[in-house]
């Protein structure tokens, strides 16, 4: 998960089959809370303030933008996963450090808190998005960082292009590379399609559309991809006027910010078109979409906790392989009005999940 501010906030949907880009900035209104909620994972929990100069217990600090950990689903899910493993690392306690997700918005006090924790090489930061990881990285010092991101960790400077890591960094990469496979499944499900409208925002399109179009054309030279750009809700009327054209036979929604923020609207308006559509998350199908091919992200918080445990036990973070999804899910909605069209039975038979 996680899938930036856009995150999504993705972190609160990890484990439900959702995916998204993390390239969008959060609201500048996020308030830095210097009094953070801490609790010891042992049965006798304790509370501690991060700026206590007498602190001697090493910290696992989860970065978030909520006022307190109890209000942040990512913190709660990580804490639950950690409690199941904490007996293997009783020396550390959990902390929730709240502040802006975007580095440019970092407050001096928040930076001081990060530096204070990172000066202890035993400290471990857990960043649930690429933006939080980028914010912490320059202040990391000798501490370790464990990230989870839907964005490309190389593009965001978390990993070196060569795969080498010179910092104390590891994590979970959910970088979505499934667009070509999704479009191939859409063509197999509806082989008479001649053009597919790809609905995405400028950020996703700028990074991925041309490459996707080139790869898709090699496989389907007679089928056209048409980019339908929407960066905000007010752009969707124009998008769906184009999507209603008889020349566009189906739609594809890659994991971008517009697909996340306007999910309900996109699903409803696509249903009204009565055209096939491929989405990027299992959750979208559960909430009314026709079909999706997605990464199974239910492992994310367990994986984060496992990585933290390995570091806590003494493994250097940079020697621990980055975790990636191992399971993928084809989801199909059985009851969906396509004006007489049907999904090819061979594709339905391959579905991992059929929603009634």
Please give the number of β-strands. Answer: 13
The number of helical runs is: 11
The protein's oligomeric status is single chain
Provide the spatial order of strands within the biggest beta sheet: 8-7-9-10-11-12-13
β-sheet strand percentage: 15-25%
Helix and strand element order: EEHEHEHEEHEHEHEHHEHEHEHE
What is the terminal-to-terminal distance?
26 Å
The stretches of 5 or more residues where confidence is low (pLDDT under 50) are 1-54
Can you give the mean pLDDT?
82
What percent of the residues sit in helical stretches (DSSP H or I)? 25-40%
Rg (CA only): 22 Å
Shape: elongated
The SS-based structural class is alpha/beta
The biggest sheet amounts to: 7 strands, mixed
What does this structure look like?
Helices cover 29% and strands 17% of the residues. The chain has 356 residues and is of the alpha/beta class. The chain has a 7-stranded mixed beta sheet with strand order 8-7-9-10-11-12-13, sandwiched between helices. Strands 1-3-2-4-5-6 form a 6-stranded mixed beta sheet, sandwiched between helices. The two termini are 26 Å apart. 48% of the residues are buried.
Write the SSE topology.
Elements: E1 38-39, E2 59-64, H1 73-83, E3 93-98, H2 108-118, E4 124-127, H3 130-136, E5 144-149, E6 169-173, H4 179-189, E7 195-200, H5 202-219, E8 224-229, H6 236-243, E9 250-252, H7 257-261, H8 263-273, E10 277-279, H9 282-286, E11 291-295, H10 300-312, E12 328-333, H11 345-348, E13 353-355
Parallel strand pairs: 2-3, 2-4, 4-5, 5-6, 7-8, 7-9, 9-10, 10-11, 12-13
Antiparallel strand pairs: 1-3, 11-12
